[in-house]
Amino acid sequence: MAQTSPLRGRPLYTADERARRDASIWTLVQGILAPIQFLVFLISVGLVLHYMMTGEGYVYATVSIVIKTLVLYTIMITGAIWERDVFGRYLFAPAFFWEDVFSMLVLALHTTYLVALFSHSVDPQRQMWIALAAYFTYLINATQFILKLRAARKQEPIWTANPVVGHPS
Question: What pTM was estimated for this model as a whole?
Fold first, then answer.
């Protein structure tokens, strides 16, 4: 039996997956939501940093973080539906396995911020540090997706999670 690795190089989409991707309305939704989320992120990070440096604008920073988090939840839900349309599962399809894993951390940190905010268990300064940590992970995750989609455009093999353990590569 051939040895297998948990990672293997393959095209991002098979011909069937590419056809499903192109036919899915969720592809357009993701294409619209991703730049909106990034714009909301840029505005919010500016407001958060302004608050951190001046101590002013807490309400604006807070509202922007809540909006960013709601946009994140929206893109994650619609992205899971897109992944189901294209790959047949809501999350952790081999082609986007590591991006989905890291997305869970991004979601956890954004949710931690909301819990801290609404429970009043953390002071405003620490809330902003949680938001900045969430934003840092968001940047890493966005970079993962950009690199993956760029490789797909070039039709380069990518590293994916091997969907069948013990299956010969």
Answer: 0.82
